[in-house]
Amino acid sequence: MLYLALWRIGLQEALQYRAESVIWFLFDVLPPIMMVFLWLTAYEGQASVAGYSLQAMLQYTVGVMVLRNVVTAHVEWDVSYQIRQGTLSMHLVRPMNTWALWFMTGLAARTVRALMLLPVLLACLVWLGSYLETPEWGTGIGALAASLVLAYMISFFTKLGIGFLAFWLTDITGTLTLVEVVAWVFGGMLLPLELLPDVLRPIAALLPFQYIYHVPMSLLLGRLDPAEVQTTLGVQAAWAGGLVLLAGAIWQRGLRRYEAVGG
Amino acid sequence: MLDPGPEYNPSMAESPVIVVDRLSKVYRVQKKEPGLVASIRGLVRRAYVDVRAVDDVSFTIERGELIGFLGPNGAGKTTALKVLAGLLHPTSGQARVLGHEPFKRERVFQRRFSLVLGQKNQLWWDLPAIESFLLNKEIYGVPEREFRATLDELVDLLELAPLLGVQVRKLSLGERMKCELAGALLHRPEVLFLDEPTIGLDVVMQQKIREFILAYNRRYAATILLTSHYMDDVKALCDRVIVINQGRLIYDGGLADLVQQYADDKLLQFELERPVPREALAELGELTLWEGQKGALRVPRAEISARAARLLAEFPVRDLAIQEPDVEEVIRELFGSSEVGAHG
After folding, report:
1. What is the largest distance, in Å, between two alpha-carbon atoms of chain A?
2. How many CB pairs under 8 A join A and B?
3. Which end of chain A is flanked by fewer CB atoms within 10 Å, N or C?
């Protein structure tokens, strides 16, 4: 019941910021749509770009638009704000797991985004219908679902840990924006990572972001054979688990510091 | 009559609700010397200084007491409150509230108390207060019927009916404070920590909040610890005050006794038939107030009768009263401030 109440209040909160919500929504929706126009033109001269047919590239672009909206956590803003303002104290004195509050309100925000995305997605399906033939669902739907859940966990716990940096950094917004940029470049949030220069691809492998976007997309597009699917899910799970532990460690240290400066 | 609440255990009635024993909270603060050379030196070797925010403080509070924590800014009042609420752990010494060590933050303990920090909100800013109340109901596990009953009472006592559906950010400061208080009491805590509850409020609202706190204390025998800058809060609510200065407890007892004990002077308030030169009165004592025909003289306690007699003999007195000095003044002097307050 508590979790439901937290989700409910998260929904209401997310619905309050209408103007802001729309701006962030456009931020996650317009670039992919622009890319669709670009690809439709770019593919006029050739059949393949970086190993992707036009069909595959459009599937990637529309798919990653969905992921940007539905799987990306933005919890670091609330968390860092509450730490800097000291309102965290009001959570700590109540008989409630603060992580539960952040997790459920985060899910609620994703729910609202998913609802906002629905009409746009339907419009894309109508517009690009022939290109967006359903990929091989049969073999992949369970794996895909698992991949998406893990992707969300990775996104959430990465952002949570980064939000906890507010325990030490006074001006956190610069850092948070930097993280967004890094996620953009190395996550495959707009372009498949095959388009990233070879020099940079190893860096992408060391960061969690590709496991939120590029990897689930590869799975959806059927670009991984069954063995690769297994290992990929395993790697995602390892990242998710590791990030939970890392976030937990930063939280413990952060709380000590929060307390040391007077709470 | 009194409804004790779900966690009340009669065998606890005998033991004190709050026990603080030689509590100290020390912060390690980096010492920053001014100047470039010092800054460079600071990169290599850091100097620290210990700030004793709470220094060897001991007191005991029984169930149902309404205690005022007094002290200047930075005295350690809020720090002490935070230790009792479990936000900070003691550096040394012990603190126990309702038999628990606050810092362990046991769920069982957290359900039995409430903390209201005057300047930090618990309520969700963009939503109507009632939504935050409903969330608190789930957080504290308050059964539906009990929640409705308590809410109705609080709405009644605090006149919240028109406010419940309004977004918290649209409420005035006073209205917000009332809602914060209500939100903190939905689970009928046995112990309530209030930090500056009337700060920033207008006089009328301060009075209303005070009346509410008193009513709540009387009705539920809740133990209430209150810190305030406003002496009127303390005067109106607290029989017992704990005075903290620079982390040390310098007084623990009745407010009236505090004045008696520490005020070396008394006040001679008078009204004259006709104006009189100021200098003439100055002989009798220190003039703290002078409005042509009305005034007040500060006189050493031991001499009060003699000076009063002289005043009556030498001047055309219409009215005369002997008063204890203002509590604010006593406190100020206790803290070593050299200010002499002018009344009016």
Report:
1. 64
2. 75
3. N
CA B95, CA A92: separation in Å to the nearest integer? 18
Domain boundaries, chain B: 10-24+54-259, 264-323
- With an 8 Å Cβ cutoff, are B134 and A5 in contact? yes
Question: How far is Cα A237 from Cα A221, in angstroms, rounded to an integer?
Answer: 20
Give the range among A129-138, A222-231, B34-43, B127-136 with minimum mean pLDDT: A129-138
Among chain B residues, the shortest Cα distance to A4 is held by B138
Q: Is the ipTM of this complex over 0.85?
A: yes
Task: Name B192's bridge partners.
Answer: B114, B224
Query: Rounded to two decimals, what is the model's pTM?
Result: 0.84
At residue A48, what is the residue type? Answer: S
Domain B264-323 belongs to what topology? Alpha-Beta Plaits (3.30.70)
Task: Give the distance from residue B235's alpha carbon to the nearest chain A alpha carbon, in angstroms.
Answer: 28
| Percent of chain A residues past pLDDT 70, beyond the cut | 97
Q: Which two tokens stand for residue A10?
A: 């998260």
Residues 6+ apart with CB under 8 A from B143: none
Residue pair B21/B54 in contact by the 8 Å Cβ criterion? no
CATH of the domain spanning B10-24+54-259, picked from 1.20.58.630, 3.20.20.70, 3.20.20.150, 3.40.50.300: 3.40.50.300
Token pair in block for residue B141: 């596990």
Other CB atoms within 10 A of residue A199 CB: 7
The predicted-structure confidence for B137-194, as pLDDT tens digits, reads as follows 999 999 999 999 999 999 998 999 999 999 999 999 889 999 999 999 999 999 999 9
**Chain B: closest CA distance from residue A158 (Å):** 25
